Amino acid sequence: xxxxxxxxxxxxxxxxxxxxxxxxxxxxxxxxxxxxxxxxxxxxxxxxxxxxxxxxxxxxxxxxxxxxxxxxxxxxxxxxxxxxxxxxxxxxxxxxxxxxxxxxxxxxxxxxxxxxxxxxxxxxxxxxxxxxxxxxxxxxxxxxxxxxxxxxxxxxxxxxxxxxxxxxxxxxxxxxxxxxxxx
Length: 183
Fold this sequence. Notes:
single chain; 5-stranded mixed sheet; 7 helices; 45% helix
């Protein structure tokens, strides 16, 4: 119940689930006075609402909707990324490999550029040789909707619109995609 306790709490709070954070706030209600704490709780609840097993939530950016791609009878890998994000760019070859391996088995890919300038995104698309569609200049709309606090955030959405995988990268992402498409 002091500034030092708040700093220590916040150092660990990002590792908690929404119910765990809520339980902690019930025990120490004075932490609710901090805007960062209430925003974190809201973000965790949003992340939980868009977790594995839930239906994707639609959004629209410059006339393009997620529903234009998801829930259309195919698997959709959605990559929330930015041009300046090193880990995001390191996942592009992984995504390319999955796309090449499974495009004939019903896998589509959609990039969603968040927290980035449109011209920087376009340059990165060219530099990286990205061939799949990309929603550009999404800002914080999808990250707020999905409770995304860090990128890359990659979702695998099933043919019926159910989120099958979330927040996986590298070998874990490959294993999740293989699980559904290697049949």
